Amino acid sequence: MDAAIIGLPRSGKSTLFNAVTRGAAQVAGYGVRAQPNVGVAKVADARLDALAPIYRPKRVVPAEVSYIDLPPPPEGFGKTRGISGEYLNHLQRADVLVIVVRAFDDPAVVHVDDSVDPLRDADTMLLELAFADLEIVERRLARLADSLKGARASERDAVMKEQALLARVKERLDVGERLRGAPFSPDDARLLDGFGLLTAKPVILVVNIGEEHLGAAAEMTSWFDLPMVEVAALCGALEMDLAQMDPAEEAEMRQGLGAGESGLDRMIALSHKAADLVTFFTGNDNEVCARTAPRGTEAARAAGRIHSDFERGFIRAEVIGAADLAECGSVAEARRRGLLRQEGRAYQVRDGDVLNVLFNV
Question: Most-buried pick from 2, 165, 292, 353 (CB within 10 A)?
Fold first, then answer.
């Protein structure tokens, strides 16, 4: 999964990036650098650890979340046309958008709008996503209108159907409604997927607080009444410092400061929740892997995430829950107890499933 971190200048995007990837990206003077920071966070999963002794593999491969920390676009945000070009391409390729808004005071780091107001900044960023989508939709509608003039009779129905769909999309965007969660049919949703519209993507809003606000983090998240948006409050600067420590030292510091769960673990959990992903596992004597897929993914499609041949030649999958397999202690014992199920290609993979795919190509 790829998550893009965006926000107004000096909101703490690079600080959050360092916290969730244990990285060391520059956090000052970012605006002069055009290239994004890219880092990968390994997903800790106790279920994966419990499966390793069963298979005794050469390697254990956790799931990953890739975070990309994007500098503000050259045009800047807040002008309702700030997302375009390569910057827009980065966002369209992301599975999740992480919007950082500033809620900390620091006289040495002046807010780009001269005052700290996280509610205003959140509205600004969400509006930027909507205006980017509007520009895409309006350009496409103009092209469809031109193509309709010379379209053959056999082509007109498809063009007019797309026109009607995009007109509905434009109506939603015009009144400030996001596309995620909108009641589109499966066929319409598939067509819209091709446009990479930003308001259709999962969004996590991170309220970057000061250390003095740690005790009020839950209250601060309640300020935001945003449907289909996951909201979290964390102290980016503190999380970045803690992420550089030895794990034992970090745990001791967290307990002393009352900092709770690490920013890395919280962001990974939120990323999975926002994208509505499930984690499934595969194992053999070579490797045990954790893999992710959108909830509702059918077994054959999930097999394709292991290898394209598995989907192409899918026959069936042997399935057992990770907890059941760990309790049995071996695949042979699970089979003896009748816990290993045979599932067809249309089976929807569940969180915690262990899959053994049978295929023939």
Answer: 353
